[in-house]
């Protein structure tokens, strides 16, 4: 199961942590892991490219872990991108609830 924690502070999204492999299918064929990875990596890349937000990121592919925390300039653009991420993850969880735990 993939565990996803969304971090908030003062009603703003400030980061997330994704860990574990979903177990939906074998490695290389797991559409749930691929979908989660695409959403999270695109969100981080978009924040880096389109905003002046500074952040810390750590990952470990073996463990299926991505940790992302905003450190400075958490503006409206970054918030919109994080809201979009959460929307996509909520939709995935509703369709694959036995493989995703979103907190």
The gist of it:
This protein is α+β, with helices and mostly antiparallel strands. The protein has two helices and five strands; from the N terminus they run ββαββαβ. A five-stranded mixed beta sheet has the order 3-4-2-1-5, with helices on one face.
Structure description:
Strand 1 (2-9) and strand 2 form a beta hairpin. The protein is built from two helices and five strands. It has a five-stranded mixed β-sheet, with helices on one face. It has 103 residues and is α+β, with helices and mostly antiparallel strands. It is globular, with a radius of gyration of 13 Å.
N-to-C series of helices and strands: EEHEEHE
Gyration radius from CA atoms, angstroms: 13 Å
Strand order of the largest sheet: 3-4-2-1-5
Low-confidence stretches: none
Summarize the amount of helix as a percent range. 25-40%
Q: Which descriptor suits the 3D outline?
A: globular
Alpha-carbon distance between the two ends: 13 Å
Question: Approximately how much beta-strand content do the residues carry?
Answer: 25-35%
Mean pLDDT: 96
Number of strands: 5
Judged by helices, strands and strand pairing, the structural class is alpha+beta
What is the overall number of helices? 2
For the sheet with most strands, the description reads: 5 strands, mixed
């Amino acid at each position: 199961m993939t565990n996803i924690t969304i971090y908030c502070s003062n009603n703003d999204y400030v980061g997330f942590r994704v860990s574990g492999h979903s177990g939906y299918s074998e490695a290389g064929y797991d559409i749930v892991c691929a979908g989660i990875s695409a959403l999270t990596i695109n969100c981080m890349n978009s924040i880096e490219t389109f905003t002046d937000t500074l952040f810390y990121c750590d990952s470990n592919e073996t463990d299926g872990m991505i940790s992302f925390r905003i450190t400075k300039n958490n503006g409206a653009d970054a918030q919109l991108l994080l809201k979009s991420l959460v929307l996509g993850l909520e939709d995935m969880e509703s369709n694959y609830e036995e493989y995703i735990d979103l907190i």
